TrEMBL record:
Entry protein name: Glycoside hydrolase family 3 C-terminal domain-containing protein
PANTHER family assigned: BETA-D-XYLOSIDASE 5-RELATED, SUGAR HYDROLASE-RELATED
Matching SUPFAM superfamilies: (Trans)glycosidases, Actin-crosslinking proteins, Beta-D-glucan exohydrolase, C-terminal domain, Galactose-binding domain-like
Start and end residues of each CBM6 domain: 827-944
Keyword tags: Hydrolase, Signal
CDD domains from the UniProt entry: beta-trefoil_FSCN_BglX-like (cd23343), CBM6_xylanase-like (cd04084)
GO molecular function annotation: hydrolase activity
A Pfam family annotated for this UniProt entry: Fn3-like
InterPro entries reported in the protein's UniProt record: Actin-crosslinking, BXL, CBM6, Cellulose-bd_IV, Fn3-like, Galactose-bd-like_sf, GH, Glyco_hydro_3_C
Family: Belongs to the glycosyl hydrolase 3 family.
Species: Streptomyces cellulosae
Length: 945
């Protein structure tokens, strides 16, 4: 007899809908196999021919952590392009390289953890480099473009499956796993949720990653908004991947749950589908899930729900249809097109902040290039390994010729003398073929992390070291051949790194005054440098006291090369691994003092000084005495070439600032103050004078705007206008459309971006630009009615080249829903739905849902609810409270009419609510003022007649 071919199981049938195929596959998996799928590293199921699967592939601006790949500008730089089509093409290139790399290395994942859509609310946030903008509309536009590129345009199969980071209201690294963002309902809806929502609704997103922080007292990994908001925005199954270690944080650092079984069950029920915890070891997550099942905290159906969402992503990626997957044979890697795109993106990201006519540079200019980043191409934590690199100095050599360019890095050159009178000495590297490049020169990149190199020693002459103070007393020290001093696991100090880097940077030090000299403290280990017979190392005892001998100040080198130049280019900024990165917020907007010294020296030597800031975030730097200033994020592999082409005028700059550049630290709110409305944050509400406004950026061309026309329908505002290039070279202009409610009844933005478009125009060319804006984009969240509302009345329509450079304006009158008093008698007052507050923070009402309000200091807080309608008569007020203290009720700023006191807390802790009542006589419409006295939580206020 002929052997029968076994029938194809339904989950392998490409003609069936994905939902039916997932049902079939789920039915074939026993509970233990489904449980194993919940960890980041899901194992293979060999009996079904199912491969292992890993969630998570970092790809913020190129493929990261997996070796060489095309490196594009940082995310904030992509945001500065204001060019959605360019960003879509970048996403497409990145996804193609992921597919090509996966074909060679199955560790490369197709579930992409990118982009980051956290809004750049506060410029001191350490991860500013990872976001696109402070504005939700611009952020969602850029994020949508990037995810569309990552997804691909096939109707069925996705090239990669992007996951948005980090849900929700996450803008601080300081205490990031224990701090709570107090986010009032209007800020939540109008600001933080909006960027996520518009990107998800665009249809190219596979899921989200919750952030480490808490929002309103509740960890994001058990956020009810995953269910109540996120999953209502699309019919697709969205995959929610935890951040690394965050499931354990629910117990270990946040102490939100008593046991890991309880915490894991709560996260799964809230919507977390994949647990990123304990690296590749899935055993602990599996044990916790099994324990939760045994305790009745979870059911198998709950496991099925999470696994279904995972499988939905895997089916969309073509894993189960390799012969039908159009992306399976993608081999586009480091192609000429990708290299050209990296350069184009770097060029489009450059923002011209100021220009007194010195730019573009004349072809025969003699250029002095100075600064700590002039010959650097810096990478950040989420960069890939460079295949190609271009520094500003190299770009200028290439464009203007090395004979016309002089260079001085401007580092301080020092020797460190020990108490014994000897000096620190850097032994020569072992000059083997291993550490030699193709030209035979020493390649520092091949030395990083080595422990077989000799440690530093001491001798009578010592070695002259380059010392750079990156601010806040954090130093790097570099040997003459470019190697950075670094500390290896064995504790010895070696010259063994090409750049500062790593999760814990091992190349940074501090000089601490001590007796008649300094102790040299290693930041990474927290230990001091000591000198012993077997070499220089860090240790807990016998720290060496060093005398710092300055051989040459950086300013002296700067002055030598700048005096005779036609123009001086100072390249300043940050190292992305130092003083502002993941796990570390900045403390100031100021440039490090070392770089300020170099800038002053250059200006004093030559008035034609141009500042090129290369940084992951804004600075407050005086530009009045400068001939010109530019800013670019760290621009990836083509950064130097791009900058040189812009300086030369080969490309007219057209980048625009994606966030406000404040003039002083005093303009900033507290890092943990998330109330952008109440504390007037970002360009939307800021009432001061910025150093440079949101949307700002100059050009070598000039543009005129005209012919503004508007048309209002029942659902849409149409705005049209013309732009004409009145200059003498082809250039890009970024047209920006803003609006402002003229007579709002609640605080509204000073102006708010509705749409933008980047256009290329030849000299004399004119184009018409048309924007169709849904009227829903002009709504605000009305806490009085707990819903969106378009307020009727006049709205300014503003068209221009930045949020403050408005060229055209008109006013339209929109119909909407008039304001109405709060139905206080009918619905009561939810405590968090206040109009104004002082000394209050929002906390969790229960561990699963709802908000309450408490005094931020634990002593006193004030709440105001405007226009509360008590109808014909109110005779009693009631409050739902937990804890202990007093709730005071007054009307219209008058005396306290009712004081309700919880004299002793209950036994259920902060969630043990009780209802108290008191007499209150009122009628008609009043402002209700509530005072919180003591450490209590107020959930709700009710009224009865």
């Amino acid at each position: 007899m002929t052997a029968q071919t076994p029938p194809t199981p339904p989950f392998r049938d490409p003609h069936l809908p994905f939902a039916k195929r997932i049902d079939d596959l789920l039915s074939r998996l026993p509970l233990d196999e489904k449980t194993a799928f919940l960890h980041q590293f899901a194992p293979a199921v060999e009996r079904l021919g199912i491969a292992a699967f890993r969630t998570g592939q970092e790809a913020l601006h190129g493929v990261a952590w997996m070796g060489p790949a095309t490196v594009f500008p940082q995310a904030v730089g992509l945001g500065a392009t204001w060019n959605t089509e360019l960003v879509r093409r970048v996403g497409e290139a990145v996804s193609k390289e992921i597919r090509a790399m996966r074909a060679r290395d199955d560790r490369v994942g197709l579930n992409v953890w990118a982009p980051t859509v956290n809004l750049l609310r506060h410029p001191l946030w350490g991860r500013n480099e990872e976001g696109y903008s402070e504005d939700p509309k611009l952020t969602s536009a850029i994020a949508t473009a990037y995810t569309r590129g990552l997804r691909g345009d096939h109707p069925t199969y996705w090239r990669t499956a992007p996951v948005l980071k980090h849900w929700l209201a996450h803008n601080n690294e300081t205490n990031r796993d224990t701090s709570s963002s107090s986010v009032r309902p209007r800020v939540l809806r109008e600001y933080d949720l909006r960027a996520f929502r518009e990107t998800v609704e665009a249809g190219a997103t596979a899921g989200v990653m919750p952030a480490y922080n808490l929002v309103n007292g509740r960890p994001n990994h058990v956020s009810p908004h995953l269910r109540e908001q996120l999953r209502t925005w699309t019919d697709e199954d969205l995959l929610v991947c935890s951040d690394a270690g965050a499931p354990s944080n629910l117990v270990d650092s946040e102490h939100y749950f008593d046991t890991h079984e309880e915490a894991t069950a709560a996260a799964l029920l809230a919507g977390v589908d994949s647990f990123t915890d304990h690296g590749t070891d899935s055993s602990q997550i599996i044990q916790r899930v099994q324990g939760a099942l045994e305790q009745g905290l979870l059911t198998e159906a709950d496991i099925d729900t999470a696994v279904r969402r995972q499988l939905s992503v895997r089916f969309r990626l073509g894993e189960f249809d390799p012969h039908h997957d159009p992306h399976a044979d993608t081999d586009d890697f480091d192609t000429p097109a990708h290299r050209a795109l990296a350069q184009e993106a770097a060029e489009q990201a450059i923002v011209l902040l100021k220009n007194d006519g010195v730019l573009p540079l004349a072809p025969d200019s003699r250029i002095a290039v100075v600064g700590l980043l002039a010959d650097e191409c810096k990478l950040d934590w989420y960069s890939g390994t460079l295949l190609h690199r271009s520094t500003p100095l190299e770009g200028l050599y290439e464009r203007f010729g090395a004979e016309r360019v002089e260079f001085a890095e401007g580092v301080d050159r020092v020797r460190l003398r020990t108490s014994a009178g000897t000096f620190l000495h850097v032994p020569a590297a072992d000059a083997t073929d291993e550490v030699r490049g193709a030209e035979g020169a020493l390649d520092p990149a091949l030395l990083a992390g080595r422990t077989d190199l000799p440690p530093l020693t001491t001798d009578p002459a010592g070695t002259e070291l380059a010392l750079v103070d990156w601010g806040e007393g954090v130093l790097t020290l570099r040997a003459p051949d470019g190697r950075y001093l670094s500390v290896a696991e064995d504790g010895y100090v070696r010259a063994s790194a090409d750049q500062p880097g790593g999760w814990i940077v091992q190349e940074t030090f501090r000089l601490e005054p001590h007796e008649n000299g300094h102790l040299l403290k290693h930041v990474g280990t927290g230990r001091h440098v000591s000198v012993s017979a077997d070499g220089v190392k860090v240790a807990d005892e016998n720290p060496e006291t060093f005398e710092l001998i300055i051989v040459e100040r950086g300013e002296e080198a700067v002055t030598r090369v700048t005096a005779g130049a036609d123009v001086v280019l100072v390249v300043a900024g940050n190292d992305p691994h130092i003083n502002g990165r993941e796990t570390e917020d900045r403390t100031t907007l100021r440039l490090p003092s070392h770089q300020e010294r170099l800038l002053r020296a250059a200006r004093a030597s030559n008035p034609n000084t141009v500042l090129a800031l290369t940084s992951a975030y804004p600075y407050a730097v005086a530009t009045t005495a400068l001939a010109a200033a530019l800013w670019t994020a760290h621009g990836g592999q083509a950064a130097g070439t791009a900058l040189a082409r812009v300086l030369a005028g080969d490309v007219s700059p057209a980048g625009r600032l994606p966030q406000t550049w404040y003039a002083d630290d005093a303009d900033l709110p507290g890092l943990l103050d998330y109330d952008v409305i109440g504390s007037r944050q970002t360009y939307l509400y800021f009432e001061g004078t910025p150093l440079f406004p949101f949307g700002h950026g100059l050009s070598y061309a000039s543009f005129s705007y005209g012919d503004l026309a508007t048309q209002v329908t029942d659902t849409t505002l149409r705005v049209s206008f013309t732009i004409t290039n009145t200059g003498d070279l082809t250039a890009d202009e970024v047209a920006q459309l803003y609006t402002r409610a003229v007579d709002p009844t609640v605080p509204r933005p000073r102006r708010e971006l509705l749409a933008h478009r980047r256009v290329t125009l030849a000299p004399g060319e004119r184009t018409e630009t048309v924007f169709d804006v849904p009227l829903s984009a002009l709504e605000f969240w009305d806490v009085a009615r707990d819903g969106w509302r378009l307020e009727p009345g006049p709205y300014d329509v503003l068209v221009g080249a930045s949020s403050e450079d408005i060229r055209l304006r008109t006013t339209v009158r929109l119909d909407g829903e008039p304001a109405a008093p709060r139905p206080a008698l009918e619905r009561g007052l939810e405590a968090a739905d206040f109009d104004e507050q002082s000394g209050v923070e929002i906390v969790d009402r229960t561990k699963t849902s709802g908000d309450a309000v408490t005094a931020a200091t634990g002593l006193d807080g004030e709440l105001l609810y405007r226009n509360c309608d008590f109808g014909g008569s109110v005779t009693e007020v009631s409050v739902s409270v937990a804890g202990e203290g007093t709730v005071e009720i007054s009307l219209d700023g008058g005396p306290v009419l009712a004081a309700l006191t919880v004299e002793a807390p209950g036994t259920g802790g902060p969630y043990d609510y009780t209802t108290l009542g008191a007499e209150l006589a009122a009628e008609g419409v009043h402002d209700v003022r509530i005072g919180l006295r003591g450490p209590l939580r107020l959930a709700r206020v009710g009224f009865s007649g």
